[in-house]
Sequence to fold (179 residues):
Amino acid sequence: MAVSDGSLVSGQIVVTATADSYAQSYDADGNVVSQLTVNAAGDTLVQRSTYDARDELIRADYAVDVTTGGASRGVEETRSYDADGHVLITDHYYALGTVLGALPAYKVNPDDPGSADGGSGTDVGGELDSATIDYYDSVGRLAEEQNFATVTAPKLSRLIPDKPYRFGQGAGPLRGVSG
Fold:
């Protein structure tokens, strides 16, 4: 177990007043399978990761706030690999309970009697948020990367590809997908 920005006192992580502290647990191959974070407010969060037989990260779950008895927020990221161990596809998912397109719970314009009350939006928890697909050349170098992000309106399930960037061809930067 490693502790960062804090100390382990009588089996408990003690944090500094200005930073989060964390402890990591490892499997027999040295992969981080869980990270326990205690933030400066004293909340404890746990995040789990899963690896395949080749020690490749294949799944990372969203951190769960165990201080509040929080339920699982679902899968955050999955990865798939080729036979040479190159990441081919990285998928990111919305946390369970995520709602998009919700309007305020009050009239948008209180002076307009026709102004609509807020809407509940669409629950997209567990749905694909973004994806990255990587292509490699014959010697294993990253040759192309495509990023896809979901469109929040009007159709949530539609994926829009960014212009692929071909390394070494001066095609310009990728429109990054953060998250």
User: Anything to note?
Assistant: Confidence is low (pLDDT under 50) at residues 153-179. The CA atoms of residues 46 and 176 lie 28 Å apart. The radius of gyration is 21 Å. The first strand starts at residue 2 and ends at 4.
